[in-house]
Every structure is written in C-alpha cells, then in structure tokens.
Amino acid sequence: MLLESIDQTRLEVSPTLDPKRRSKLGQFMTPGRIASFMARMFGPLPSNVRLLDAGAGMGALTAAFVEEAIARDTRPQSINATCYEVDDHLASILDDTLAACADQCASAGVAFTSRVIRDDYILQSAEPLLCEQRTYNCAILNPPYGKINQTSEWRLGLRSLGIETVNLYTAFVAVALSQMEEGGEIVAITPRSFCNGSYYEPFRRILLAGSAIANLHVFESRRSSFKDDEVLQENMIFRVRKDAEQGEVALSTDETEARNVPFSDIVRSSDRHAFIRLPVSGNDLADSVQALPCVLADLGIKVSTGRVVDFRAKEHLRKEPGADTVPLIYPQHFHDGGIQWPISNFRKHNALADNDDTAKLITPAGIFVLTKRFTAKEEKRRLVATIYDGERAGFENHLNYFHENGDGLPLDLAKGLAAFLNSDAVDQYFRIFSGHTQVNATDLRNLHYPSRDQLEALGRGDTTMDDLL
Which residues pair with residue 351 across a beta bridge? Predict the structure, then answer.
C-alpha cells in the first residue's frame, strides 16, 4: 500500500535530515497509523474535494486522505490537492507520493489533480491576491512547531491577516481556517498547549468564533504519537467545521473510545479566558475544584515567579554557601514535601551572593509555598508543591512562590495550601485544563481554592480534602 511505503521512507529519511534545520522548521513526520486515523476522522466528503496539506512533508497525510476517500462507499468525484513544503528534499519525495495518489484515484474512478508549492505557507498566504484565490473544503494538517518572534516575518504576515498568535502550529491552523469554505473541515494534529494559557487566548478566540469543534482526540503519552522523533509536547488531534453550529464533541484518547460530551464540558460559558477543557478521565474532581468559593485574590495571597534568572545573574551565583550568600532554591531542591539544601556536588548553584546588586532578587525570611513551573515527564503529578521555611533566599525562575505582599505565610495556611495543591483533585484539574507540563503563575491565579479558614483547617489536620470537595 502507498501509505506503508511512505511510512518506510519516513523511517529511513527522517534520521538523515539535518537536526538543526528540522528544529528551525519544526519538522515532525506523521507516522502512517496516525495519518490513517486522521483521515478517517473526516465527515462525509464533498463531491469535489479541494484539499489543503500545509507542511506536507513526504505526503503521508494526503496519501492517507486519498486512501480513505476512495475506500468509502460514497467516493468524491474529484480530489484537488494543494501541498505546501519548503524543504526541497522532502518536496521531491512529495512529488512521487502525489503521482502515486493519482494512480490510485484513477483505478478507483476518482479524478485527481495536485500541485506542490515550494514556499512558506504563512508568508505566501499573507500575499492578498494569492490568499483570495485559494479556498478549500478539506484540510489535513501536521503543522510545524516553533515560537514566532515579535519581529519575525511570520508575525508581520499574520498580522496582515488579522491573526495574532505565538507559535507556528497555531498560525497554520488559523490561516487554514481563514481559507476554508463554510462547512469545510480541518483535521489537525498539534500540541495541546493552545488549550489554556494567556498566550494562546487570541488563537482560541479565532478557532471558537470561526468553527465548531467536532472531535478531540488526546494522546495521554507524550511519545505515543511521534515516538520516533524527539517530541516533548503532549499531542492531540482535532476536527473542526468552518462556520458550523456547535453541538456535542466526540472526545477520545489513545486508550479510550470516543464518547460524546456537551460542549459546555469543553468550554465553559463563564470562562472569560475560553480555556479548552479535556475531561478525558471524568471530570468530577475537576468540577469540584472549579466549584470552590475563592480565587487567590480572595485569600489575600499572591503568587509570583522566582526572581532569579540564573543566566542573568551569573556573576552572583555560588556553588556553595558562604558568609556573604543566601540560599538559592531550584526545583531540584524539592524533597519529600520540603527543601533539601544545599545539595552536594550540585551541577547548578546552591547560593546567591548577598549584596546591593542582588537585593531585589532576595525574598525575606519566612514560610513560602513553592511550586515547580515545569514537571518532568516521569513525574506523577502535573503540579508539585513544597514548603520553604527558612532564612532570606533567592527563588530561581523555574519556581512560583506564594506570599502575602512579598512576606511569608502563616504555617497552617502554608501547610493547607501545599496539601491542596498536591491533591489528586488539583492534579486532575490541571490535566483537564492544561495541554502541557508548564504551570505558570497565571494558571495558579485562575485556579479556584477553598476559603482561607478551610485551608488553615486543612493545614492543622482538622479537615480533609474529601470534606472540602
């Protein structure tokens, strides 16, 4: 079969590609089984398909679409495929793939035409005349991953299209949506990171305003979709319909069958940030957290990101503590709910020089609840909290810390807050709301909490999480 042949070529070619160029272009080739799954996700196909495959690589997605289309009881009369690919080596393989697609369609009585555009999809789409001429009714996408700098050509081109976003993958989807006919469908595999967070809110607004979500498929393992590549993001596949009426959403995972859930379980009408929830394993605990009475401001508590950015403070970092230093706390100092400091033979630094230049980087002595901003893939929990109780210290930038106007917290409150943040309920909440392993201060401010009295009671052991939820 054609797709099997492409998959074998992918396994042979992918390791030979320049890693730096792959990183720059955000290239991750779609495995054949994933491509087939994506193609099957489309609803009834138009009689005359105009297909977009932006960032087509070797053509696995287009080949999978063609194989699916001609295998259906109701086949389209024609398929016209437009494939974008900037890498000349991959584009030459893509030419062969499209020729094979034409042969398959001919044998099935389906007219097939195609074109390969060896150009940057975003920049060319930002040229008004070209953009107006190209409309599609189907799109199948594995867009590149990569941050878009404020001053880049991509950012300027997107702004000319009225699109504001921070990553190539959301940019590709947003541009494709703008080029779809009413009722057209996009099936895309992307990281889950767009589902929450302030940076991706403009993209979520574009997606939710311009389309109806029909399917969400979540890969619960970071490596399950691209195990042959160094992909660290957690991935998902989604299908959306342009300008369609929103109904229930078919939600599935790589371990569970699809089930229909109300759209209100995916995006709450009361959520001013339009987070996309992924309640893949039931949402009872997450709903209980969402129903709690307070946000952080109600508690008189603030959360901030650690002030010490180590590469900016190199001259003030010390391997070991001394008379003129304060503790420097990294995530690696977390240990059994507390802090293990200093660490012998620590590859980073245990201390920060205490001088006029570092005064603004140092927090006062006291009790603080610390959380990791990033968790490693092998860690069981999305959110990891611990208590720091000690002298003046520097908190490194990969930490968040809870405080009262810069000062420490009362012990019972700190203990209760840490217990709450480390609970199964909060872990479930973040797994539903968060598409990545990063937990920012904004996420913690938007989290719902028990009251201050309830947290203090939890810290004293007078109540339990079960009592609070």
Answer: 318, 327
Structure token digits, residue 154? 């991509």
Q: What is the rounded (10 degree) CA torsion for 173, 175, 176, 177?
A: 80
Specify whether the CB–CB gap between 437 and 197 falls below 8 A.
no
**By C-alpha distance, which of 367, 372, 409 is closest to 390?**
367
Helix, coil or strand: residue 209: helix
> pTM for the complete prediction?
0.71
Provide the token pair at 102: 């034409």
Tell me the C-alpha distance between 387 and 288, whole Å.
Answer: 25
What is the DSSP annotation of 396-415? BTTEEEEEBTTB---HHHHH
Give tens-digit pLDDT for 281-335.
655 666 788 778 888 989 999 999 999 998 999 999 999 999 999 999 999 999 8
Helix or strand holding residue 459 (H, E): helix 452-460
Q: How many Cβ atoms sit within 10 Å of the Cβ of residue 267?
A: 19
Supply 362's token pair: 């140092």
Q: Hey, what are 126's tokens?
A: 């930002």
Hey, is 18 helix, strand or coil? coil
Contacts of 103 (CB under 8 A, 6+ apart): none
Question: pLDDT band at residue 230, thresholds of 50, 70 and 90?
Answer: very low
Helix-, strand-, coil-residue percentages of the chain, each rounded to 5: 40, 25, 40
DSSP character at residue 469: -
Separation of alpha carbons 341 and 399, rounded Å: 15
Q: Identify the bridge partners of residue 27 per DSSP, sorted by sequence position.
A: none
Tens digits of residue pLDDT in 371-418? 998 876 556 777 899 999 999 999 999 999 999 999 999 999 999 999
Question: What's the rounded Cα separation, in Å, for the pair 95 and 114?
Answer: 9
Name which of 194, 162, 190 is nearest 178 in CA terms: 162
What is the CA angle 451-286-433, rounded to 5? 110
Asked if residues 399 and 306 have their Cβ atoms less than 8 Å apart, the reply is yes
Place of tokens 């920060």: 352
Q: Are strands 393-395 and 399-403 parallel, antiparallel or unpaired?
A: unpaired
Locus of tokens 């998902």: 236
Structure tokens at 77: 């009369």
Return the closest-CA partner of residue 141 out of 225, 69, 55: 55
CA distance 269 to 280: 20
Give every CB contact of residue 160 below 8 A, 6+ residues apart in sequence: 126, 128
CA–CA separation, 353 and 322 (whole Å) = 9
